[in-house]
Amino acid sequence: MEDLKQAYEVLGLPETATKEELENRYFLLTRRARAQKMREGGEHAAGEAVDLDKVSEAYRYIRDYEENQAKAEFTAKEYGKFKGMAGKAQKWDHIFHYYKVHMLIGLIVLALIGYGIKAFVDHREEQARLAKLPPIDLSVMFYGEFFYGDSFGTDTEPLGEEIVKRFPDWQRVQAELTYVPLEVKSEQDMALIQKGMIVLIDNKTDLFILDKGNFEKLANQEFFLPLDQYEGADAGELPQDGDSRAIVYQPVDSEGQPDPDMEEAVYAIDLSGTKLGEELGVSGTGEYYAAVKASAARPEAAVEFILHYLNETK
């Protein structure tokens, strides 16, 4: 087919024919051609014969022409502003369209790599900073429904510095606060409880300050040192069974029955009546049970902390 005009002539249509008229005409001519083929030995006027190959070629020519025109109009509309660069702009647009998922994944991977590098650098810098600090004299964790300042106390370095002020022989205290709700009232509470359990894994804290509920949960897991069996420095000054400040507790099993493998003992000292919370800026339920971790590296320092606040109230 040489040109558009000839294609329309083959189909017997004017060049102004609509798309619907084109489709109807092609459908009519193909039916006529099939009808001709089905006639056997019939005679027809020359003007009635339909050359299906020629008709189909003309139809495809017109459709291809219209499609190319539509593409040209779209390109002119979308990329005309780029003028001489329209071709390249269209090419890049197509690349982005077909590879946008790959590009997005690539960007995410780059972001993760960048985040990982930054985290590694920050960790190295923090380790270098800690290496310059004095050795830890005591590590203490407030574990339970406690607040430090106006929040859960994400930055507790000032808390450690506040404790050091009260112990002239100490240079550094590592203080932490883990908020653990006693009851689950929301999804956030559940998340905080789970976080509290994770914090205890491989934990190296010497002294725990807890509310009553969380103290009992951990005491049932053999988490604390029986203080009436403690034989280190100042052991004789600790409150013993019969003293209201000595928390005597019988650990229980999962069914709430006394655990036969654990004996009743003094597992904590009640500091609720001391100035501990007021002095350190830690608030909560008002319960402050001080318990030494069974595997504490510095039990003597933990006992010194306890006795300091007990003696303040005398």
Give a brief outline of the structure.
The chain crosses the membrane at residues 101-121. 48% of the residues lie in helices and 12% in strands.
Explain what you see.
This is J domain-containing protein. This protein has 314 residues and is of the alpha/beta class. The chain has two domains: 4-82, Helix Hairpins (Orthogonal Bundle), CATH 1.10.287; 134-312, D-Maltodextrin-Binding Protein, domain 2, CATH 3.40.190. It contains nine helices and eight strands. The chain has helices at residues 4-11, 19-38, 52-79, 86-131, 157-164, 187-199, 212-219, 276-280, 299-312, and strands spanning 138-144, 146-148, 173-179, 207-210, 246-249, 265-270, 282-284, 289-292. The strands form two sheets. A six-stranded mixed sheet has the order 3-1-4-8-6-5. Strands 2-7 form a two-stranded antiparallel sheet. Helix 2 packs antiparallel against helix 3 and helix 3 packs across helix 4. The protein is rod-shaped. The chain starts with a helix and ends with a helix. The mean pLDDT is 85.
Supply database-style keywords.
single chain, 314 residues, alpha/beta, Helix Hairpins, D-Maltodextrin-Binding Protein, domain 2, 2 domains, 6-stranded mixed beta sheet, two-stranded antiparallel sheet, 9 helices, 12% strand, rod-shaped, J domain-containing protein, J_dom_sf, transmembrane, membrane
